[in-house]
Design a protein that fits this description.
The protein is mainly α. The protein has 3 domains: 53 residues, no CATH class; 40 residues; 206 residues, MetI-like fold (Orthogonal Bundle), CATH 1.10.3720. Helices cover 78% and strands 1% of the residues. It is built from 12 helices and 2 strands, in the order H-H-H-E-E-H-H-H-H-H-H-H-H-H. It has a two-stranded antiparallel ribbon with strand order 1-2. It is a multi-pass membrane protein. Belongs to the binding-protein-dependent transport system permease family. Its main location: membrane.
């Protein structure tokens, strides 16, 4: 954790500033790293507000920053109200069961799940859960396959045409196929997961696969011959060579692929949820579009900003993880 903090460029100036080290220099660093982006953000909000006032759609005027902020507060209030209702529901249920058990000790209490309104926050959680599931599935397949492909020219020659054919396929093309296959194969009276979740997760997996696979294979294939020769001199077995030589050397490229995969997966998931009407942020956007109320545009803007903000956080977390586990500093 200490190493991670030490490598955080945005955090170190604050730490040094509070410690009283090079106050002028640290202030200049903070001004450049935070002040300039903040000024650009203010200019962006001003231009957005001016442009929004001049555009009127069938649903009303395009919302400016203030209206979007108001809608964000309204969505949060809906979430708070639902949590209050949920808490009251379970409290009433517990009281009712306790009262019946007091009258009849043999009574088996019934516990029913609260099925209230799906809120914006619930949709965010659903989308994050789905994208991480699809991403982890993709990484668990792509990294071993990428290592094997990078170490074996024969395997690389065999798989390269397949990778090049399927890599550019749009997620919207995968979605109908995945939906039909899941509907045909995933049949159970008591399924562990909803079909909509499985469909979205597999679609994300298929689209996340290629950046990690290709970057891992390229990173492994470009390992210095000297390092490979050292592993031969030391007579390392295949697994030890991968663990001691291949993984540390190819780690930067692997993380580059994973960052790309996570970004692609997040974009693909939103599109898949919109098209298939699976639970998540994409469905929320589409439902608001179909709703057509005066608040819809503002809520859609909230969702768009949230999608972008979450994408930025996911990429930043991957970069921090890369700097933490990698032996060399990431440039970006």
């Amino acid at each position: 954790m200490t190493s991670m903090i030490a490598r955080s460029r945005w955090l170190m100036p604050w730490i040094k500033l509070f410690q009283g080290q090079d106050i002028k220099q640290q202030s200049n660093i903070l001004l450049k790293s935070l002040g300039i982006p903040f000024l650009a953000f203010i200019i962006f909000l001003f231009l957005w507000d001016v442009a929004a006032k001049s555009v009127v759609t069938s649903l009303g005027q395009v919302p400016g920053p203030a209206q979007v902020w108001q809608q964000a507060g309204g969505l949060w209030q809906i979430y708070e109200d639902e949590k209050t209702k949920e808490k009251a529901f379970y409290q009433r249920q517990n009281e009712r069961n306790e009262a019946r058990m007091a009258k009849d000790p043999n009574y088996e209490p019934r516990v029913r799940e609260y099925r209230g309104r799906v809120t914006f926050i619930d949709q965010i959680i659903t989308s994050l859960y789905t994208v991480f599931t699809g991403f982890l599935l993709a990484v668990s397949i792509a990294i071993p396959l990428g290592i094997a492909t990078g170490l074996s020219k024969t395997l690389n020659t065999a798989l390269n045409p397949i990778i090049q054919i399927f890599k550019p396929v749009s997620p919207l093309a995968w979605l109908p196929i995945v939906t039909m296959v899941v509907s045909a194969v995933y049949v159970s009276d008591d399924p562990w997961f909803e079909k909509s979740f499985v469909t979205s997760a597999i679609t994300v997996t298929l689209c996340c696969l290629w950046p990690t696979l290709i970057n891992t294979a390229v990173g492994v294939a470009n390992i210095s011959e000297d390092l490979i020769n050292v592993s031969k001199v030391l007579r390392l077995n295949w697994f030890t060579k991968v663990r001691k030589v291949v993984l540390p050397s190819a780690l930067p490229m692997m993380f580059t692929g994973m960052r790309l995969s996570l970004g692609v997966g997040w974009m693909v998931l939103i599109a898949a949820e919109m098209l298939a009407q699976n639970p998540g942020l994409g469905k929320f956007v589409w439902d608001e579009f179909q709703n057509g109320s005066s608040d819809s545009l503002g809520r859609i803007m909230v969702a768009v900003i949230t999608i972008g903000f979450i994408g930025f956080i996911l990429d930043s977390l991957m970069l921090m993880l890369q700097r933490w586990v990698s032996w060399e500093q990431a440039d970006k």
